[in-house]
Amino acid sequence: MRTILTRILHGLGAQVAQVEDATKALEYFDAHEVPDLALVDWHLPGMNGLELVSTLRADGRFAPMSIMMVTTECELDEISAALAAGANEYLIKPFTQEAVAEKLNLMGIGGEEDPSPTEGRAR
Q1: Which of 6, 19, 92, 101 is most buried by a 10 A CB count?
Q2: For residue 86, is it left (φ>0), alpha (ψ between -120 and 50) or beta?
């Protein structure tokens, strides 16, 4: 799934960094500039995506970062929980490149007026 998302984001002009679990994500964020965007899967080893979103939102450094939960969880309770934890958007798998672009546009990242929607610090 990371490979598919990376391909889609590269197609939209984003620079992408991948990590395989929440702990490595936190380590990455601590060692690098805060990205514009984080795509978080609900089902991560160790700390799940919902816990990762909550942890990121509890740290003021990540307040400006947009977070999109990307998951197969499609129940209203899960969507509400992710948004309440601080996710800005929620994308249900399977998805298309157009669906990813639409969600990014809803978050104010990209759009038709900006040909490179997440160029720069997006991870």
Answers
A1: 101
A2: left
Short-list 81, 77, 83, CA closest to 103: 83
Domain ranges (residues) in the chain = 2-106
Which CATH class for the 2-106 domain?
Answer: alpha beta
Q: What is the C-alpha separation between 82 and 73, in angstroms, rounded?
A: 10
Tens-place pLDDT, residues 65-110: 999 999 999 999 999 999 999 999 999 999 999 999 999 999 988 6
**Are residues 67 and 53 in contact, defined by beta-carbon separation less than 8 angstroms?**
yes
DSSP annotation string for 2-63: HHHHHHHHHHTT------SSHHHHHHHHHHSPPPSEEEEES--SSS-HHHHHHHHHHSGGGT
| End-to-end CA, the chain | 15
